[in-house]
Amino acid sequence: MGKKGSKSMTWDAARRIQSAVDSGRAVSADEGFKSRAMSAAARNSKGGRK
User: Fold this and answer.
1) Are 27 and 43 in contact (CB under 8 A)?
2) Is 0.70 topped by the overall pTM?
3) CA 2 to CA 36: how far, in whole Å?
């Protein structure tokens, strides 16, 4: 799983990642990273998307 002490991906964090990738601010991230962030947020939200 994740690294010791790391926090779970949230919907807000996933949205920030998508925004950074779309705007070009996240130069080392790609479209695949966006989808992995959203998938992780879905897994961690326990009740699905709100």
Assistant:
1) no
2) no
3) 13
Structure tokens at 10: 């949230």
- CB neighbours of residue 36 within 10 Å: 15
Q: Which of 9, 2, 12 is nearest to 36 (CA)?
A: 9
pLDDT in tens, 12-49: 988 888 888 888 887 777 778 888 888 999 998 875 55
DSSP state of 47: S
Instruction: Confirm if 29 and 37 have CB atoms less than 8 A apart.
Output: no
